[in-house]
Specification:
about 425 residues, alpha+beta, about 45% helix, about 20% strand
Length: about 425
């Protein structure tokens, strides 16, 4: 029994620490690496700061269109040939455009690393952007935009972003509009590709069954030829967020409501204080105050939640619910009551202890696969959380006391700063 207890404690201490190495290629590309021999797979998570924030005003959606085309063929392989090659060697590769960055994931079976990384090199550096692929992909995105306009939840999300973030680049959708997509030409994509994928914007995390020298060689191969053509400015802070409420009328039996409020950047020293506070308020599912009062006790909504959206330079708190039309304003009133209550009265010691236990215990879920580990390595680097993050994270959480968390609640939560987007 003592051995089992010792092993369990040792495992979690080791898991929470996450022993990684900081490596550098001959071309000067730095990345974090965890060697994992448990399964014969190599996983890489990478990002390039910028994303759809780099879209020009009249060509919104170009970042999303470009990333959608990154696996549609290279200078040497057609779209069909490229996808067939990937399937034959057990390779996975995907790119996606977010509001603040382009994300990517790559996985390959250890026995096929040479072929896999060579294929990855071709895809990243020499996408073909064939006209027929561009037109086909545009049609797919346009079809999805039309579906979004008829989907209550997605429509509410788009309307919320438009009215909450106002003139900030986050007010735009990553997909763009039908009009803006039709303005994008092949040459635009080629030019945008060179700006979007630059060494200076790159962050990489790798985990898997491969030797250090080999992975340095392959990272250098894939990313070594990228250039630095243009400085990518950091995103502006959210200086003028929406307040009050905005209504978008729609003939539906139920209404979707999203609410927003200023928050904190991911590397803010009080980030975990706010994260714990939000977990208790609306982020803890069945255990949250919003759920217990508004769903469980009063039965006003189908579901209700809140979460943090934290970026490099700023952050917001976002929440939402769907309800029958006649319950909309009663539910909003209840949300505001709970907001005011947690601001003025704070949280309890029991709530704090339960939230700490959740965040400490759930963190090890990030270590269940090489892909989740590589993703975690990328995130910690992207937000400049520090090389000692894995050693200090649990200590940061455990050192939070009731006074500190309640002060953050008192300082940040403000009913006058809440914004409600009502669609229905």
């Amino acid at each position: 029994m003592k051995f089992i207890i010792f092993f369990t404690i040792f495992f979690f201490q080791q898991a929470n620490a996450l022993d990684f190495k900081k490596l550098e290629t001959e071309s000067g590309i730095n990345f974090w690496f965890v060697k994992d021999k448990s399964i014969p797979i190599v996983s890489m998570s990478f990002s390039f700061r910028g994303g759809s924030s780099l879209d020009s005003q009249n060509k919104q959606g170009i970042s999303n269109l470009m990333t959608s085309l990154m696996d549609e063929g290279t200078r040497n392989l057609s779209s069909t040939e490229f996808k067939k090659e990937m399937k034959m060697i057990g390779m996975k590769l995907n790119f996606s455009s977010q509001k603040d960055k382009i994300n990517g994931n790559f996985q390959i079976i250890s026995s096929q690393v040479e072929k896999g990384f060579n294929l990855f090199y071709e895809a990243l550096n020499f996408p073909d952007f064939k006209l027929e692929d561009i037109e086909r992909t545009k049609k797919q995105i346009i079809a999805s935009i039309k579906i979004d306009d008829s989907n209550l939840s997605t429509l509410a999300s788009n309307k919320f972003n438009e009215n909450f973030f106002k003139n900030h680049t986050f007010s735009k959708t990553t997909k763009g509009s039908i009009s803006s997509l039709n303005k994008i030409k092949r040459n635009d994509l080629i030019s945008f590709h060179k700006i979007a994928f630059q060494k200076s914007n790159l962050v990489i995390g790798v985990a898997g069954n491969i030797k250090e020298e080999k992975i340095k060689k392959f990272v250098g191969l894939v990313f070594g030829e990228l250039t630095n053509l243009k400085d990518i400015p950091k995103l502006k802070k959210f200086d003028t967020l929406g307040k009050g409420k905005k209504i978008f009328n729609l003939s539906t039996p139920q209404t979707s409501v999203l609410f927003g409020h200023p928050g904190l950047a991911r590397n803010d020293e009080e980030y975990f204080s706010l994260r714990i506070a939000n977990y208790i308020f609306g982020g803890g599912g069945f255990q949250s105050r919003l759920y217990k009062r508004i769903r469980e006790k009063k039965g006003l909504v189908y579901s209700i939640y809140s979460y943090l959206l934290s970026y490099q330079s700023d952050g917001v708190i976002v929440g939402g619910f769907q309800t029958r039309n006649e319950y909309v304003y009663e539910t909003i009133s209840n949300v505001k009551d709970e907001w005011e209550k947690i601001k003025n009265k704070g949280i309890s010691k029991t709530e704090l202890d339960n939230a700490k236990a959740y965040f400490n215990g759930s963190f090890t879920r990030n270590f269940t696969s090489t892909l989740s580990i590589s993703g975690l390595l990328e995130v910690v680097q992207y937000y400049n959380l520090g090389e000692d993050y894995f050693q200090k994270r649990e200590t940061i959480i455990n050192n939070l006391d009731l006074k500190r968390v309640n002060k953050v609640l008192s300082d940040i939560f403000d009913n006058d700063e809440l914004f409600f987007m009502i669609v229905g």
